[in-house]
Amino acid sequence: MDPFLQMHIFFLVTTIVVVVLGVLSCVALVYVILLIRTVERIASHVNEEAEEIRADIDDVRRKAKREGLRLKHLITFFGKTAKRTKKRAAAD
């Protein structure tokens, strides 16, 4: 085989491989960008929910300071209920 023909075949194959790898890299990059956008959206939702939870906890704290005795009774009630539930689960 002529060395000149071998050189042309080598460069043709190399060019095809480089183009295919470039296209695959672009496709992978698009998927990575979509993944990052999704993660950012999820993080934003988590952040919003965390702010709402903080507000709820602050509200519970304020109510506990105002109505501490009532809240104490509720906690005691639910504590006893939870203990009973654990005992029943252990007995079964």
Which terms would index this structure?
92 residues
Helical proportion, percent range: over 70%
- What is the CA-CA span between the terminal residues? 84 Å
- The percentage of residues in β strands lies in under 5%
The major sheet is characterized as: none
**What is the tally of helical segments?**
2
The parts where pLDDT drops under 50 for at least 5 residues are: none
Shape: elongated
Number of strands: 0
Our Rg estimate from Cα atoms comes to 32 Å
Oligomer: single chain
Query: How do the SSEs run, as a string of H and E?
Result: HH
Mean residue pLDDT: 84
Query: Helix/strand/pairing class, anyone?
Result: mainly alpha
Structure characterization notes:
It is a single chain. The chain has a domain at 67-92. 96% of the residues lie in helices and 0% in strands. The chain contains 2 helices and no strands. The N and C termini lie far apart (84 Å). It has 92 residues and is mainly α. Helix 1 (3-66) packs across helix 2.
